[in-house]
């Protein structure tokens, strides 16, 4: 086996390999692999915001294949446009149903571009994944290009598509100075395709790819298959049929260099797993053949190549995160809401008897088109016969503003400290979330009632003026505070905002709703109002400010349906970080 493996490890290409030390050169090679391997590689995930670098990469890819330009999938694509369906124009002209080809069928063997792939709807991802799985030689599936514009690490294209796309390139750290014309043309790809189709790969390489993928946390068999296809494409690009170690290393760097889907990100400084330590059977004397040792050596080198790419990506991701922190966070906010006036287009709805909204003419005609032959035979009219049941109203979807409501315990000896840190948290949130235009308000409870110290605002000047001199001390009207938070959250909901409640308290109320100092009755009223607040389904966070974990605070947090955090030493910056993390999960 050692003699059979020797030609594989010999790095003697027919022509000089492409220098991929620069990220743009690696992206150029990835484009060549996609063009050569086609559907065998699935496609490529391009991590970059819309800008000159990404546009230049797409333009260079298009310039090499002017006869087969890529097909773009709109973010608001409907099912008929994606998979094919009734053509409204042709149906109305012909007077009978006429069907059109969908985008997926039109892109057979061509590139299908998904812009803002991190916002791809589940049904679009599932439909496209099914088409990729059923590809045949007669009808090859499209080559998927996922343009990932996610601002945060939790914003990514659906896993069902990431698993079926072989390559990943990151252009987010490049500038316009790094852009250069591709050093290959369509003629080079046409010459490499026959070599790719005639090439084969030895079983030892498949073993090395499989072991490397498993060691790096990938559980899908698609990854080793993509590695093999990418290695063959790199070899063909350099005018060879045989795969050398340089080809395999580049393939592992492009296919295995990312973090597995759904897997936790581990430290990239950890040593590579020792794949040579495999369980031995009872009859094994521990000796290993030279061929097995050679495969293990190859596997370790493939893992090292992938880990080097992963380490570089970790450094770049850290830099991007720091840059986002310096420039303000522009991530998700609020909840997805349906609207009739503005936002991203969504699936239309039928017109209600007493409803209002903008008429979606195209969808209305599409709904009425199949009935035209029957209706024209009944009414003998020449134009389209539209019925009230055909009317479709445009709908939009948008992410609502978040309205963070702080409910702060201003009673007792630690009141001033809690109120001061709540003010700090409000200022941190407003300065950090200005791009999202979130609202912040503060309710303080002490003495006989809960007071709205800061109405919902996003003005730092108003915060500093309203929370300059905060009162503290006295009894703890906790039940009244929950009721005040409930009423303010409902009011914010009617304004189209998504309320998020943050409680800073030790969970011990001693004043009833009617102002009497009765701890047992106050506890019953607090529990009753907490259950009512939980029934509304609003997310909330309970920060226990006691000196040590308080069972009463934990119990109240459970009644509220809030996430509990023990925070004896309250810090404004820490509180704002916790709130941002909780909002980002929604």
Topology:
Blueprint: H1 2-9, H2 23-37, E1 43-47, H3 52-64, E2 71-73, H4 79-83, E3 84-86, H5 88-94, E4 99-101, H6 103-106, E5 111-114, H7 122-133, E6 143-148, H8 159-162, E7 167-170, H9 186-198, H10 203-215, H11 222-237, H12 245-255, H13 290-327, E8 336-339, E9 344-350, H14 361-368, H15 372-379, E10 392-399, E11 402-409, H16 415-432, E12 439-446, E13 449-457, H17 460-466, H18 478-494, E14 498-505, H19 519-535, E15 540-544, H20 551-560, E16 563-566, H21 572-584
Parallel strand pairs: 1-6, 1-7, 2-5, 5-6, 11-12, 11-14, 14-15, 15-16
Antiparallel strand pairs: 3-4, 8-10, 9-10, 12-13
Helix pairs in contact: 1-13, 2-9, 2-11, 9-11, 10-11, 10-13, 11-12, 12-13, 16-21, 18-19
What would you say about this model in short?
It is built from 21 helices and 16 strands. It has 586 residues and is of the alpha/beta class. Helix 9 (186-198) packs across helix 11.
């Amino acid at each position: 086996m050692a003699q059979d493996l020797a030609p594989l490890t010999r790095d003697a290409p027919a022509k000089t390999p492409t220098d991929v030390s620069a990220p743009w050169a690696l992206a150029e090679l990835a484009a060549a692999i996609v063009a050569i391997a086609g559907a065998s590689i699935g496609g490529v995930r391009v991590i970059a915001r819309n800008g000159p670098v990404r546009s230049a990469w797409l333009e260079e890819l298009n310039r090499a294949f002017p006869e087969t330009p890529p097909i773009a999938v709109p973010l608001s694509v409907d099912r008929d446009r994606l998979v094919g369906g009734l053509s409204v124009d042709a149906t109305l002209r012909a007077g009978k149903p006429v069907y059109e080809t969908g985008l997926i069928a039109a892109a057979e063997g061509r590139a299908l571009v998904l812009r803002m792939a991190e916002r791809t709807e589940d049904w679009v991802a599932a439909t496209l994944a099914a088409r990729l799985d059923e590809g045949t030689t007669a009808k090859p599936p499209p080559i998927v290009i996922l343009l990932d514009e996610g601002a945060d690490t939790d914003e990514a294209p659906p896993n069902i598509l990431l698993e079926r796309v072989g390559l990943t390139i990151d252009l987010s750290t490049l500038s316009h100075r790094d852009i250069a014309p591709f050093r290959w043309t369509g003629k080079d790809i046409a010459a490499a395709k026959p070599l790719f189709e005639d090439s084969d790969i030895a079983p030892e390489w498949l073993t090395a790819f499989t072991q490397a993928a498993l060691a790096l946390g990938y559980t899908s068999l698609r990854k080793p298959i993509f590695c093999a296809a990418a290695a063959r494409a790199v070899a063909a690009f350099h005018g060879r049929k045989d795969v050398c170690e340089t080809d395999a290393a580049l393939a592992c760097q492009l296919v295995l260099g990312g973090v597995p889907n759904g897997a936790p990100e581990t430290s990239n400084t950890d040593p590579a797993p020792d794949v040579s330590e495999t369980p031995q059977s009872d009859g094994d004397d521990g000796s290993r053949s030279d061929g097995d040792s050679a495969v293990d050596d190859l596997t370790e080198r493939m893992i090292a190549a992938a880990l080097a790419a992963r380490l570089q990506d970790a450094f770049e991701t850290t830099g991007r995160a720091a840059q986002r922190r310096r420039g303000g966070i522009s991530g998700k906010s609020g909840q997805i809401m349906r609207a009739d006036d503005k936002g991203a287009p969504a699936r239309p709805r039928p017109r209600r008897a007493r409803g209002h909204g903008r008429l979606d003419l195209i969808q209305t005609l599409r709904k009425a088109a199949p009935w035209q032959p029957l209706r024209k035979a009944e009414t003998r009219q020449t134009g389209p016969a539209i019925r009230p049941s055909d009317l479709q109203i445009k709908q939009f979807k948008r992410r609502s503003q978040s309205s963070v409501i702080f409910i702060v315990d201003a009673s007792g000896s630690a009141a001033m400290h809690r109120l001061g840190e709540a003010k700090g948290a409000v200022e941190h949130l407003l300065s950090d979330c200005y791009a999202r235009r979130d609202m912040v308000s503060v309710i303080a409870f002490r003495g006989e009632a809960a007071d709205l110290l800061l109405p919902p605002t996003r003005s730092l000047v108003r915060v500093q003026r309203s929370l300059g001199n905060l009162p503290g001390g006295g009894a703890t009207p906790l039940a009244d505070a929950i009721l005040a938070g409930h009423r303010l959250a409902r009011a914010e909901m009617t304004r189209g905002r998504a309320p998020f409640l943050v409680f800073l308290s030790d969970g011990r109320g001693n004043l009833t709703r009617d102002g009497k100092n009765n701890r047992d009755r106050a506890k019953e009223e607090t529990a009753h109002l907490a259950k009512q607040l939980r029934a509304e389904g609003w997310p909330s966070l309970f920060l226990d400010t006691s000196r040590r974990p308080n069972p009463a605070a934990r119990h109240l947090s459970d009644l509220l349906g809030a996430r509990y955090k023990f925070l004896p030493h309250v810090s404004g910056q820490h509180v704002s970080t916790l709130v941002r993390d909780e909002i980002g999960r929604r």
